[in-house]
Design a protein that fits this description.
The complex is a heterodimer of chains A (357) and B (207). Chain A has 357 residues and is an alpha/beta fold. Chain A is built from nine helices and 15 strands. In chain A, 42% of the residues lie in helices and 22% in strands. In chain A, helix 6 packs across helix 9. The two termini of chain A are 22 Å apart. The chains are: A alpha/beta (357), B alpha/beta (207). Bound molecules: zinc ion.
């Protein structure tokens, strides 16, 4: 459980310190006052990852050179000092070298927000990120694998791009050196994603019925769609001519997708926006239930302004379906919806212009 | 109103110090303050020592370690070393930590960096051709080298460099091994303690 949250020069907040209750904590305010940044801070502190950006420079308050985040999770004081290029991690003021060690002491997190609609309507990168964020929390070492794969991919793409631009061929041995890293780590990514979707798919189908109620007559089927079904060794060898021609790595796990169908129809081209929202929420609810199951304690739920968009029936069903006893941080512009809801906040903060009260 | 700034000499000093790795604007200013307040002759000594080092130190043509003009290479000239094993490192500063571990008695080869396409560093920028030449030094290409140990950083660029060298050397019948995991990523070997390095050397594995 997260019991406190402190921010220093993070986004629009100069300095902020708040206690977090065990139940539901609400941050209430108009748009663009910084509410979402508070949830982002909690996500960053617990998972070292922001759902809004991959650039640490964006997290630093304008005119400052670094940000600080801290908070008590269970018995451990977690702390991050970040600048555009560096990141220092601490447990109880002891520096932690490896992200894996930091994350091992930290909690699990599910983020629900309006941009979740991208899971249905957006490109494959939104769905890959969803799989990665889930796998990183369930499988130790997954994140390290992913980061190495991505890092090798950037280098390999640079070799291919530079060669394509100058109409030369890249040095075969250097290119191979990076291809081998993609094969090594990419194979592990595929294996983890495969088993993840096997457990995720039935959980998502159930969650879809739970949230949609009688409106959700169809069954949601998430299916893992790897970019390639042959071994990665063979895949990269076959794709080499195309890679050379186009100056980038054209295929591999960085092009994987999660196909979403309702009965047999693609979810993106089917149903109202309300129904698509139900599908997106179902994926996040399934994520929450999977994390709950694996850790034995419910994950921290970060709910970014989602209740205003839902009709009362769907809202009630969603709230009833969330893992029992889960701690919730939520943002909202008003609390009218919460009057007779199972998620009545026990702590309420008003957020205005980068300050809270 | 006119803006107040440091005299040009102070500005030049700060901007020069800022070029040092890991030194930001504030640290550079703090160092400049210290240098300018020092009355112990630091600035004069430092200028002379920097000049001499830059002028007299080069890389040994054989192993790449620091070579002082007119002297023999401390690494290549050492007696009693096993000549059938070469340990490949990224920087000259990686040699002494390995020596301190006491677990290695062969020869060294300093690459001068690692592959890094994003920084435009390719194999031709590293002392790979020199390594190649060292291994095939005999008239008919025969070699005394039986094993090449890669003591490179644990990050992706180090891994890629290891893959590159393994592909280059393995076909020659040379056993190419890599230090066991657990070494610091990207920071070189200077942060690893002697015991960790000895253990990493003992646990090296074939690529
Ligand atoms: Zn030498």
């Amino acid at each position: 459980m997260l019991s406190s949250l402190r921010l220093q020069d993070f986004r629009c907040f100069a300095s902020l310190n708040c206690t977090i209750g065990p139940g539901t904590t609400a941050f209430v305010g108009e748009n663009a006052q910084g509410k979402t940044s508070l949830l982002e801070a909690a996500c960053m502190l617990l998972r070292l990852s922001s759902p809004r950006t991959r650039s640490k420079a964006e997290l630093v308050r304008f005119g400052e050179s670094r940000f600080g985040l801290a908070g008590k999770f269970g018995d451990t004081e977690l702390k991050i000092l970040g600048s555009p290029r560096t990141r220092k991690l601490y447990h109880d003021a002891t520096p932690i070298e490896k992200a894996t060690d930091y994350l091992a002491e930290s909690g699990l997190v599910v983020w629900m927000g309006n941009s979740d609609l991208d899971l249905v309507q957006g490109t494959s990168s939104a769905r890959r990120h969803y799989l990665d964020f889930t796998a990183a929390q369930l499988t130790p070492g997954y994140l390290a694998n992913l980061r190495r794969y991505e890092s090798a991919l950037r280098s390999r793409n640079r070799l291919l791009r530079d060669a394509a631009r100058s109409s030369t061929t890249p040095d075969t041995r250097t290119l191979d050196a990076y291809t081998q890293i993609l094969i090594l780590h990419g194979t592990k990514l595929i294996a983890t994603r495969t088993t993840l979707v096997e457990t995720l798919a039935p959980a998502a189908a159930t969650a879809h019925h739970d949230i949609g109620g009688t409106d959700a007559l169809e069954t949601l089927h998430p299916t893992y769609q790897p970019a390639t079904t042959t071994s990665l060794e063979e895949t990269f060898a076959t794709a080499l001519p195309a890679d050379l021609r186009r100056g980038l790595t054209t295929t591999g796990p960085h092009r994987d997708d999660l196909a979403l169908t309702l009965d047999a129809r693609p979810a993106a081209r089917f149903g109202s926006e309300g129904q698509q929202r139900t599908t997106a929420l179902a994926l996040k609810l399934a994520q929450a239930r999977l994390l709950h199951q694996s850790r034995g304690t419910p994950p921290l739920l970060l709910l970014d302004d989602i209740f205003g968009e839902l009709d009362p029936a769907r809202r009630r069903r969603l709230l009833q379906s969330l893992p029992q006893g889960s701690q919730k941080l939520l943002t909202t512009t008003h609390l009218d919806w919460a009057k007779d809801s199972p998620a009545t906040p026990d702590t309420i903060y008003q957020v205005q212009n980068g300050t809270i009260s | 109103m006119q803006k107040i700034d440091y005299p040009p000499e102070v500005r030049a000093l700060v901007s020069q110090l800022k070029r040092l790795p890991g030194i930001g604007a504030r640290s550079a200013e703090r160092m400049a303050v210290w240098v300018l307040q020092d009355r112990g002759g630091f600035a004069e000594d430092c200028a002379r020592i920097l000049g001499e080092a830059a002028e007299r130190i080069s890389a040994c043509a054989t192993c790449g370690f620091y070579l002082s003009q007119g002297n023999a290479c401390a690494v290549c000239d050492a007696s009693g070393r096993e000549v059938n094993t070469i340990c490949v490192v990224e920087q000259p500063t990686d040699v002494l930590p390995l020596e301190r571990s006491g677990a290695f008695s062969g020869l060294y080869h300093v690459l001068g960096g690692r592959l890094a396409p994003l920084d435009n560093i390719g194999p031709e920028d590293l002392r790979i051709a020199e390594l190649d030449a060292r291994i095939t030094s005999g008239a008919s290409g025969e070699t005394a080298v039986r094993e090449v140990i890669l003591a490179l950083s644990a990050d992706v660029e180090g891994e890629a460099t290891a893959n590159y060298l393994a592909e280059l050397l393995s076909p020659r019948g040379i056993s190419v091994t890599r230090l066991a995991q657990g070494l610091p990523a990207g920071g070189g070997l200077e942060h690893a303690d002697a015991l960790t390095l000895a253990r990493a050397l003992g646990g090296r594995r074939a690529l």
